[in-house]
Every structure is written in C-alpha cells, then in structure tokens.
Design the sequence.
C-alpha cells in the first residue's frame, strides 16, 4: 500500500477518533476527516489532514474508518439519508472501530456488500490516553485479505492488531473485553474500600496490588483515579452500561450464565440513578464507598498510571 496515494477517509473525531486519525495524518496518509461538529476535526489540518463538509465526500476514498459511539450513529453516518453511501460512489473498504452488537455489525456488512464495499470489523481496547502512549490494540474480523491490506494502517495507529476470524467475531471479543472491564473495576472498588475501611491507605494498598501477580496494566492505569479521585472521563457510565447490556444479550443468545456481569450492570445502573453519570465509570469506587459507610477524600499522593 502506498500511504501517500491511497485515499483514506475518517468518520468521527471524538476523544478516540481524533487521536487515532491524528496518527494517520502524522504518518503522511492522504486523510480526509468528517465529524458532526466540524470544529472538533479542524485541528487535524495542522497534521496534514483535510476536513470534509459532507459524509458523501468520503465515498470516493479507498478505505474509510468509522469511530463513533453507538450502532444508531454508525447506521446514520454510513447509510442514513445524508450518510456516506447517500451518493453513487462507495469506498472499497470500511474499517468499523465502534463498539456495536453482532447483529448491528452483520447488518452493516450486508449494507456495504450491496454497494460492493468490504467490511473489516476492528473495535479497539484503550482510550485517548492509551493511544497517545502507543498502547492501543485492535481486534479484527472479516475477510483475511482485507485485514492484510489494512494492517499497515492499523499499525500506524496501534502496536497490536489481532485477527480472530471471519464475520463478526471481533465484536464478541470486544463485548467480552468490556464486560470484563466493568466487572474488574467493580471488584477493584470493593477490595480497595475494604482495605481502606480496615485502615490501609488506598495508595499503599494499590501499590502492593500493582506489584503483585494480580496487578495489571489496567489496575495501574486506574490507580490515580482511585487514589486522588480524579474521575476525568475516559469511558462514561452510559457507554459501560451499553456494553454490559450487549454482553448480557450475548450470554442469553449463547446460553451462557453471567451472574457477575448481571450484578455489575445493576450496580452501574444504580450509580447512574444516583446522579453519577458525567464522570468516568471508575466512580464505581464512590458508590462502593457510600454503600460501605466510608467518606472518601483525595489522598493527594503522586502515583503513576503506567502509561506516561
């Protein structure tokens, strides 16, 4: 693939999409970006990208990436009345990176196939800060030749891209990933509050955990939020609830009991019902503390997140 002559389109310049598109632009790709709010995409011009006024302007690209929030958003930007496919042209390949259901992904594949466009399902693990730290990872499914063709572009965005097979298999992997994200965060909140109520400072407890065999990149990454109560959004409770619902739907479809996921979904719903909706989903810690009769205060201890 010639990066300078292959025309790349990008839909979605939110927290994630902006940072992902920026890596392609900085890598010298011929990149055109569309975002519902144009002003959010315009800073990419500094890195060599162009900004489209209309989604249909991307239809003449060779490859188009899509990174938006929900299946309804995906369907609107791809196949809506003013969507990318609203004119005669269509790209050869769409790389769809949003977290959507298996059913939505399959419908999208059919919509694109009717226009002669191939789909690579390519959801990601990470957030904007993870992208900046070059630790994002893709999980991909669809035709293997399409994955092989797109792989150099994926490599520009993230160091890891796993191919898991045909069809929509990448979607179930991402759903499983995000269910685990919720369950692990709730579990980490419970044991952190338990340790604190017994008299252990949160920073000391998490320092031990992160250096133990149970520590992880994720537990280290969430430590500043848990210690200093900085809940700047990386992933909203609304989005976590959506993905837990997708996981529970998949569990019903495949007859897999998911008691921990179900309980976590209810706890996320309870948190949202109590007004914790606008900060990061790691505010599960605050809900756990309240349920335990513990008033949390920032410890104001410098702790690293393992990324920077």
Sequence:
């Amino acid at each position: 693939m010639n990066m300078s002559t292959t025309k790349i389109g990008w839909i979605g310049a939110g927290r994630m999409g902006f940072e992902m598109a920026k890596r392609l632009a900085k890598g010298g790709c011929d990149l055109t970006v569309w975002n519902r709010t144009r002003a959010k995409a315009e800073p990419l011009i500094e890195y060599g990208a162009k900004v489209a006024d209309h989604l249909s302007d991307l239809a003449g690209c060779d490859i188009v990436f899509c990174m938006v929030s929900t299946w309804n958003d995906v369907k609107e930007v791809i196949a809506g009345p003013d969507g990318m496919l609203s004119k005669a042209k269509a790209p050869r390949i769409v790389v769809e990176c949003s977290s959507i259901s298996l059913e939505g992904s399959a419908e999208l594949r059919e919509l694109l196939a009717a226009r002669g466009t191939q789909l690579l399902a390519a959801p990601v693990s990470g957030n904007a800060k993870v992208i900046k730290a070059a630790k994002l990872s893709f999980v991909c499914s669809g035709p293997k030749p399409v994955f092989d063709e797109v792989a150099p572009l994926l490599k520009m965005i993230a160091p890891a891209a796993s191919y898991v097979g045909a069809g929509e298999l990448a979607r179930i992997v991402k759903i499983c990933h995000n269910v685990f994200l919720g369950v692990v965060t709730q579990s980490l909140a419970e044991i952190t509050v338990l340790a604190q109520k017994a008299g252990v400072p949160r920073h000391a407890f998490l320092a031990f955990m992160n250096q133990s065999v149970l520590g992880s990149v994720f537990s280290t990454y969430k430590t500043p939020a848990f210690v200093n109560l900085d809940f700047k959004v990386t992933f909203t409770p609304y989005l976590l609830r959506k993905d837990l619902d997708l996981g529970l739907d998949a569990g019903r479809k495949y007859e897999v009991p998911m008691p921990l996921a179900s309980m976590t979904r209810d706890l996320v719903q309870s948190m949202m019902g109590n007004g914790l909706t606008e900060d990061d989903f790691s505010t599960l810690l605050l809900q756990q503390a309240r349920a335990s009769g513990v008033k949390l205060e920032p410890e104001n201890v410098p702790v690293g997140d393992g990324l920077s």
